[in-house]
Design brief:
The complex is a heterodimer.
Chain A lengths: L4 H8 L1 E3 L6 E4 L2 E4 L5 H9 L10 E4 L18 H17 L3 E2 L9 H8 L7 E4 L13 E4 L2 H10 L1 E4 L3 E8 L8 H12 L7 E6 L1 H4 L3 H9 L8 E3 L4 H7 L8 H13 L10 E6 L6 E3 L7 E3 L13 H14 L14 E4 L7 H11 L9 E4 L4 H10 L1 H8 L2 E2 L20 E4 L14 E4 L2 H10 L5 H8 L3
Parallel strand pairs in A: 3-4, 3-6, 4-5, 6-7, 9-10, 9-12, 10-11, 15-16, 15-18, 16-17, 18-19
Antiparallel strand pairs in A: 1-2, 2-8, 13-14
Chain B lengths: L5 E9 L6 H4 L19 H4 L21 E4 L11 H9 L3 E4 L4 H8 L4 E4 L2 H9 L4 E5 L4 E4 L4 E3 L4 H9 L3 H6 L2 H13 L1
Parallel strand pairs in B: 1-2, 2-3, 3-4
Antiparallel strand pairs in B: 1-5, 5-6, 6-7
The chains are: A alpha/beta, B alpha/beta.
């Protein structure tokens, strides 16, 4: 019978099944960071338990780390943050878990370094105490975020009890237009189908527009699956996947790699496989996207205006719309390109890979950041940072007036010093625009790296298509 | 975790949909390495203004001071996987959250902490929210929420999760009983 990749991977990982119980699912890779792991390790100690498979764990420090001046843990000024970061180091040492410490050349956002190191591979089950674990699904893996109790369960048993989720196909047909990025695909999907459309499902993204994406772009799409409510979103592996992984540190070499690659390709969903639900969106209808509200579904194509309250049918939606606009300090009916921007953040597990930085740099090259804007670039990892510096991308940003920082989660959730001041608007390449996400009272507008870069130059939201055409004098 | 079966209380009406975990517990409170002590930070930026004074938020309403049941609209607990959200809810004093739907990770996280998440229909939740200082009795065994006005709302829950909550079992200890299966699985994997 034709099977989806979701069913193939799931079935391969069931350790034990019994009527009336969830499946006991084996976990191939467990990624850890400083914020959601300390209580799990403490639980192990209290119960005198060991980490069952430290060799299947990999840890780094990303959420809390400062992005300027220091790569030394002991110099972190925030005492509680320093303690949390030091605790991860101590826990990894005690339990024998490999760690990319703050000063390690492999340090970076956990969802960026997993793929970089080749730890992320097709067919794996991958978990992390972080909802953006869905990123790894880009490789054809079942990857999902878990809570700290589940982190402790995986550390102890290398398994999780999981009810088999329903499957959903999100088919993106056609070709992307000029100036339209992977970020716009996922923002358009969330806006069209809603913030909870994926609850209870694992999503597979299919269709021509998805097939044509690079691995880095696929990661951007899968990353925000959780913003549509889906714990996991994945893409069947193909030649693009195989070539990305070839030569990476944790994948086999030579003949063994070819054998593994051949197996990966068999995981792709079979022709005629049936999903519990299928939805479709045409790439032709997607334009560069911007959010104007306080959740990722509150967004529109950049050529539009902010919706009117009367555009919403349900009272609860009308109420949510008004609440969001009050928080954002915006008026209904306002053109999106009239929104003034005073902060720009290029970073996060959604959009801080080398291709994102290259794209943003190409937009700003030879230009200056608008005098009212404070703009920062936070590379997703030390590897990304080093590669970008080798290409001279850091110079382009610095010459334009951007700050060039060290790697970490940074202003995506503002756990460190990188905070958007209350009441200010930020053009951000991150994934969440919730109230206070980038700092108490901060106002986030999610968009692609090219759109954020252009907003930094103009001091307001701009249509990247118009910006690019103007710049070549069309 | 603490077993749970019967909970009687006035409900705290949180008349909003898509309440995300960033609102439930804001990131500046995630740096602690303990599981306890998060209650005072629950919904911090909705409960307090920029100067730290109590704002007009339902948790500051005297009528609900001792409430142990929170009721909200669709998609409660969306966003971040932070288990600090249910820890804050529990530490504040809630044992039950009622909503038409929950985000998957949050729902699971409740189950691991002895918090009972109850799904009722949109109409039922609206009816509960519309009643003034409504007292209800929740019974997990019978899977019912009984209002002070005699209305009985029934809910579904996965039998495995129900058993875990009723008994307050430690899931890890239970999973250790499947060690032979895990070992066999690993051996088979190695052989391939």
């Amino acid at each position: 019978m034709a099977k989806t990749i979701i069913e193939k991977i799931w079935d391969e990982h069931v350790v034990y099944e019994e009527e009336g119980k969830p499946d006991l699912l084996y976990i191939d890779l467990h990624l850890l960071h400083e914020v959601t792991s300390p209580q799990a390790f403490e639980g192990l100690r209290l119960n005198n338990r060991k980490v069952r498979r430290p060799d299947l764990c990999y840890a780094t420090m990303d959420h809390n780390v400062p992005t300027r001046n220091t790569r030394n843990r002991e110099q972190i000024k925030d005492e509680i943050a320093r303690k949390q970061i030091n605790t991860l180091q101590e826990n990894c040492e005690e339990f024998g878990i490999p760690l990319a410490d703050m000063n390690h050349p492999d340090q970076g956002i956990v969802h960026i370094i997993g793929p970089e190191l080749g730890l992320t591979q097709p067919g794996k089950t991958i978990v992390c105490g972080d909802s953006h674990t869905s990123t790894h699904g880009a490789f054809g893996a079942i990857a999902f975020g878990i809570g700290t109790s589940e982190v402790e369960h995986v550390l102890s048993t290398q398994t999780l009890w999981q009810a088999k989720p329903k499957t959903m196909e999100i088919k993106v047909t056609g070709e992307l237009g000029f100036g339209v990025a992977a970020k716009d695909i996922i923002l358009a999907i969330i806006s069209k189908f809603g913030i909870d459309m994926g609850t209870g499902y694992i999503v597979e993204y299919t269709g021509e527009a998805i097939r044509n994406l690079s691995m880095e772009e696929r990661m951007t799409v899968c990353n925000m699956s959780i913003e549509a409510g889906a714990r996991a979103g994945l893409i069947s592996p193909d030649a693009t996947t195989v070539e990305f992984l070839r030569g990476r540190e944790h994948v086999p070499t030579g003949e063994a790699f070819e054998k593994e690659a051949a197996r990966w390709l068999t995981l792709a969903s079979d022709e005629g496989a049936v999903y519990d639900k299928t939805v479709e969106i045409s790439a032709d209808e997607i334009e560069p996207f911007v959010t104007w509200g306080t959740n990722p579904s509150m967004g529109s194509g950049v050529s539009n205006h902010i919706p009117f309250t009367k555009d919403f049918a349900e009272a609860s939606d009308q109420q949510a719309h008004e609440k969001a606009l009050t928080y954002m300090g915006l008026e209904q009916g306002m053109p999106l390109t009239d929104i003034a921007i005073t902060n720009v953040f290029i970073g996060s597990c959604t959009n801080a890979r080398l291709s994102d930085l290259r794209t943003a740099a190409s937009v700003i090259e030879g230009r200056k950041v608008h005098p009212t804007v404070k703009a920062i670039v936070v590379p997703g990892s030390q590897t990304v940072k080093k590669q970008a510096e080798q290409e001279g991308i850091d110079k382009i940003f610095l010459d334009a007036g951007f700050e060039w920082r060290e790697s970490g989660c940074s202003m995506c959730l503002a756990m460190n010093d990188d905070i958007v001041p209350a009441g200010e608007h930020c053009a951000s390449t991150s994934n969440r625009n919730f109230e206070g996400r980038q700092g108490a009272g901060s106002r986030t507008h999610l968009m692609s790296p090219a759109m954020a870069a252009a907003a930094a130059i103009e001091g307001h939201i701009v249509d990247i298509r118009k910006f690019q055409l103007d710049s070549v004098g069309v | 975790m603490e077993p749970i079966n019967e909970v009687k209380s006035v409900i705290t009406p949180l008349n909003q949909k898509n309440v995300d975990t960033d609102q439930i517990i804001s990131k500046e409170f995630l740096k602690r390495i303990e599981r306890t002590g998060f209650g005072k930070y629950l919904f911090y930026h909705w409960r307090f203004d920029a100067e730290g004074n109590p704002s007009e938020f339902v948790l500051n309403d005297e009528r609900y001071k001792d409430s142990t049941i929170l009721v909200a609209h669709d998609n409660f607990g969306c966003g971040s996987s932070r288990e600090h959200a249910p820890w804050a809810i529990l530490d504040y004093g809630f044992r039950v959250v009622i909503a038409p739907s929950f985000a998957d990770i949050f729902y699971n996280n409740c189950m691991k902490n002895g918090i009972l998440p109850i799904k009722l229909s949109v109409d039922e939740v609206e009816s509960i929210l519309s009643k003034e200082a409504y007292n209800v009795a929740v019974n997990l065994e019978t899977q019912t929420v009984t209002g002070a006005d005699g209305v009985v709302y029934s809910f579904d829950i996965d039998p495995y999760q129900k058993k875990m909550l009723l008994n307050g079992w430690d899931e890890i200890s239970l999973t250790f009983q499947y060690e032979d299966h895990i070992k066999a699985f690993e051996n088979k994997k190695l052989a391939n």
